[in-house]
């Protein structure tokens, strides 16, 4: 009996994985068609510019885009794939046959647990490592929307504020990036500035948040509040800004490599701290995302049948419910990125809603 149970469980697991894989294939095909309609000319221009055959640019580009697209669409694929797999199993009367043989609902739930572990491992790897690497490989390739958005070029004068200090500088890319035309204002929350520092350039110092200023001139406030100049010199200052911040200055947190993201979130004065912290927390929650939505998809499909027959209207309503639950993922992530809710809630809210709904549907079927 145990051997037969194992065979049945593997059959259910493979049915779900095949359905999820098919949905992934469809979604990637649609996404590639849309993407190439917008970027094929750019790919051809890049091939002509570098003197390479088009396929040498096209295939790596599709690989990088595929990783990025799969990261975003895998939860949806798990929901739709599990939904379709359960409908196909119902059509073949598999649940009825297994129930007649004495199998409990735990058999299908165990198979879904294995599916969740497999897809969750893939999702966690995509979120934490593969997607950031693919995005910046595309930037280095020089083609596509990410290459335009994250191009490594000199950035216009920027402002960085921490406590009662404000720093204005032009960011120059490099390894590590440096600052040019630096102006540091101290005492900005008071009636008058306590000091002003102007420097030709700044490079990272020995400590993560230290900066070595070249040709720096300092003005200190005297007793009457007037700023008095000091001779040019080299200064080392501490400011809550690191070279990693500058490298990923205009990059969304979910695109930043894992180790760099950890170093950035260690500095709480970062103006985009909520965005980066949400991205970090959601990577830890990513492992559970596909499994929970696969369980929800299967539960919705099992609820959409009546007396061994499909109920089309109910299935449509349940499919819409599932889609809304997937949309909630992005809504809560966006709320976390803008600091409207805590990063932990932003990452877990959609999981809790989907998991609770799936649990309610499973309990109703007992």
From TrEMBL:
The cross-references to Pfam families, in alphabetical order and at most eight, read: LptF_LptG
Q: Would the keyword ATP-binding turn up in this protein's UniProt record?
A: no
Domain of life, per UniProt, equals Bacteria
The cross-references to InterPro entries, in alphabetical order and at most eight, read:
LptG/LptF_permease
* TM ranges: 12-34, 69-88, 95-118, 284-301, 313-333, 339-361
List localization entries.
Answer: Cell membrane
Annotated keywords: Cell membrane, Membrane, Transmembrane, Transmembrane helix
Q: How does it sit in the membrane?
A: Multi-pass membrane protein
Q: Does the keyword Cell membrane apply?
A: yes
Could you identify this protein by its name? Answer: Lipopolysaccharide export LptBFGC system, permease protein LptF
